[in-house]
Amino acid sequence: MDFRQMQYFVALVEEKSITKAARRLNVVQPAVSIQIRKIETDFGVSLFERRSGGVYPNGIAKRLYPHCLDILERMANVRKLLVEASGRFVGKVSIGIPPSAAHDIVPRVLIDYHKAHPEMQILAHEGYTANLVEWLVRGVLDLAIISFIEGDRRLKLQPLIAEELVLVASGDTKVRGNVVPCANLDKFKLVLPSSQNLTRILMETELERAGLTLSSAMETDSLTTVFALLRNPGWATILPASAVSTPNVRRGLKVMRLVEPVLRRTLVIATLPNKVMSDAENVFIDRLKAAFAEASEQGHAAGRSAAKP
Fold first, then answer.
1. 234 in a structural domain
2. Residue 308: Cβ-neighbour burial (10 angstroms; 0-12, 13-18, 19+)
3. What is the pTM of this model?
4. Is 139 a member of any domain?
5. Contact call for residues 200 and 98 (beta carbons, < 8 A)
6. Nearest alpha carbon to residue 242 among 175, 281, 293, 306
7. Which of 18-22, 149-153, 163-167, 191-195 has the lowest average pLDDT?
8. CATH code at 205?
9. Between the CA of residue 275 and those of 126, 152, 278, what are the distances in Å?
10. Cβ atoms 223, 197 nearer than 8 A
């Protein structure tokens, strides 16, 4: 039983379908059938039961499966060791990203990282903090960019960025200056994230401390919908400065600084406490930190210069 046959065997055990196994291996269906049949013929055994609902491993296959899985994993580790010894990274990392970073900052980091390390596969999952934490704990993610959560012992956190939240409105909205006191937020049709969103909770908490109430004209957890609404005069939202960092994102919009009080959020990189970060993951995190720092500064600069002729 050679290495390729082990790959085909493991894929069929896990997929329980020749069609799905072939798709996963990126081969035609007969190739899977031929290799499985060859294993069975060479050793004089039957490994699968063919039923109407699929192809299911029998007792022998179930005992064989963990051994093949172990060998494939060891071979992958051997290849990874040799590749990394040459100064390259190889493998896979699964990351969670918030919507405010998914449409601009993280894609730029992913492209640059892929150019530098083409053999690394990055799986990006978009979600709000509550979803990302759940996926992290379940083992779906290796690391996640989340809003700071105090006292969650399930997580190990390292700082990513602390930044101001800014008011973003349609470019046709009549606003004097580029600084807006939070007491004047009721003059805008605010579209905000839902009440379960951690950034929304942060905003409401800070405003309540200042004796203010945050009211929304509409609520949505879709950033695409938010930006569509902002194309209409009078509509506005509150976003992290890094979310409006590039001219392409800001086109047709006004970015204004919020004061009295200044609203801030802190993003962190979250992992499980027992996770040992690989060199590839640490390099990726360093790129994230640099990109967020630059984007946040650009977003703040846009707010500072909005009123200048």
1. yes
2. exposed
3. 0.66
4. yes
5. no
6. 293
7. 149-153
8. 3.40.190.290
9. 21, 16, 9
10. no
| Structure tokens, 111 | 């492209």
CATH code of residue 118: 3.40.190.10
Say yes or no: 248 and 109 in one domain. no
Give the pair of three-digit tokens for residue 95.
Answer: 């990351």
Q: How many CA atoms lie within 13 A of 223 on its CB side?
A: 18
pLDDT for residue 58: 94
User: How far is Cα of residue 165 from the mean position of the Cα atoms in its chain?
Assistant: 21
Alpha helical stretches, state H, the chain: 3-15, 18-25, 29-43, 59-85, 99-102, 105-116, 129-138, 198-209, 223-229, 247-250, 279-305
CA-based nearest residue to 219, from 189, 240, 244: 189
Q: What is the DSSP string of 68-89?
A: HHHHHHHHHHHHHHHHHHTT--
